[in-house]
Amino acid sequence: MLVENKQTEDTILYEVQEQDHNKNIKEVLKQNLNISSRMLTKLKKAKSIFINNKYVKYHEPVKTGDRIQILMKEAPNQFQPQNIPFDIVYEDVDIIIINKQPGIVAHPTKSHPIGTVANAAAYYLMEKKIECRIRFVNRLDMNTSGLLILAKNAYAHHILSEQMKENQVEKKYITFVEGVLKKDEETIDLAIYRPTEDAIKRVVDPRGQRSITKYEVIERYENATMVQVQLFTGRTHQIRVHMAHLGHPLIGDDLYGEASDLINRQALHASYLSFLQPRFKKRIEVKANLLEDLNQLQSKLKFP
Questions:
Q1: Catalytic entry in 10, 94, 141, 293
Q2: Do 62 and 20 form a contact (C-beta atoms < 8 A)?
Q3: Cα radius of gyration (the chain)
Q4: Is 141 a catalytic residue?
Q5: Using CA atoms, how far apart are residues 124 and 133, in angstroms rounded to an integer?
Q6: Domain harbouring 291, CATH code
Q7: pLDDT of residue 14 exceeding 80
């Protein structure tokens, strides 16, 4: 059982229960905290697991009431701290979730060495005097806005990444597409393929990976439709590829459709996430309101 008032970003404290009596530490951590063999190996090398404040080896049996302490201290990222808007919609001991603005990338690249979400996170953590290594759990294109998850430790990143792989994270988006969709809802089950290794654009092709997208119409306009989209797989550009394949590219998507005078980016917003908190296993639901440019787009479509 986790000792709730003793948890920190870099420390997990677990109290051994009766059913775990006489099991070794490795068994207890795998069964109760879903710690992977790979992570256990790293913790072992770093001598980061203790029982009742004493370092012990993995084969040691535990007793009811023993306290297992796992230290996950890591050197922070070397991102330059920058005071950039960082709209936090949820935070706990393991994760930060922000409502990402469009036009900003997650972490530094050759073309975007500064001015990224990572730089904003470094500044926020510095101000809060929290030392941890930030990892991104999900991905959003530079010009997609909405919910982006940052893990504060390797444990949270591993657990949430596994939930992503097993499709246990519910992901919903709001988008505005060209043209009027006739069906109120539809599930698209079409493989997405990357034609060449250096290709940015993806295509629907049976040689690709299975990709499943469900949309539901929210509102119809004269020449456009507002839809809610749920992803059941997580392929690059999945919503953009599938909607374009149906003949309804996202408004403003100049890669799969064309640029628009109504908005200067693709009209796509990650609006909802539901998952299990990695450490406490409680269901977390997070919503992010539409940003101002999408609200303005909606008004222009309603009242052209």
A1: 141
A2: yes
A3: 22
A4: yes
A5: 13
A6: 3.30.2350.10
A7: yes
